[in-house]
Amino acid sequence: MNTVIEALKGGLIVSCQAAPGNPLHGPQFMAAMARAALQGGAIGLRAEGTQDVTAVAHATGLPVIGIRKVGSVADGVFITPTFQDAEAIAGAGAAIIATDGTARPRPDGQGLSSLIKRIHEELALPVMADVDSVEAADHAQQAGADVLATTLSGYTGGLVPSGPDIDLLRALVRTSALPVIAEGRYWTPESVVEATEAGAHAVVVGTAITNPLEITRRFAAALDAGRS
Length: 228
Ligand SMILES: CC(=O)N[C@H](C=O)[C@@H](O)[C@H](O)[C@H](O)COP(=O)(O)O
Fold this sequence. Notes:
Order of helices and strands: HEHEHEHEHEHEHEHEHH
Number of helices: 10
Function: Converts N-acetylmannosamine-6-phosphate (ManNAc-6-P) to N-acetylglucosamine-6-phosphate (GlcNAc-6-P).
GO molecular function: N-acylglucosamine-6-phosphate 2-epimerase activity
Strand content: 5-15%
Largest sheet: 8 strands, parallel, barrel
Bound molecules: N-acetylmannosamine-6-phosphate
Structural class: alpha/beta
Organism: Actinopolymorpha pittospori
Pfam families: NanE (PF04131)
Radius of gyration: 17 Å
Number of strands: 8
Pathway: Amino-sugar metabolism; N-acetylneuraminate degradation; D-fructose 6-phosphate from N-acetylneuraminate: step 3/5
């Protein structure tokens, strides 16, 4: 196993992301989030965009899973869709490149295996495949991915569930030879422990730690629901 991926074993990875429109958008805020995550016990980070990847890496020295989002979840493949995106994120200091590992067509028409091959050969970095199903995970493994993550479960059709997809995590742990990272809608300490007990190599938590806008919305919505 790649040494950076090996070093993440059993740990908490904190995703520090704030999209435009979020008052915390910007590398200075993400660097502060990353420092707080480090002090709190994170052993790795996930960040989006060249500025944020560089900022959080420099602020902490932690390994960063880097992505570049092009468009949004509604656009199909949007997490590090092309080699040019991966190259930019590698140049910004990412230790691992994460990319969409679903079966959906990529915007440049390239297959996942040729993207992964180029990342390995030209950037010398490991690749994390963000998948949504066992089938996608099988394909990503055959395409040469170094690590799988459940990141895109719930985001490729239908309603987004409220909780994490522990069933997919279990299925991937059972069927894949690769390490599997639990990611997506982990909101409680109990759920990250459950993921680890289910065999997750590590757990990524984003919104619940680094997105006060969404955290506030959840509290406010709970009060609204209680009143109605
Ligand atoms: C679907 C999608 O766009 N996921 C993104 C991937 O990087 C992020 O927006 C998530 O915050 C991240 O996966 C962590 O998950 P959560 O924030 O639920 O802990």
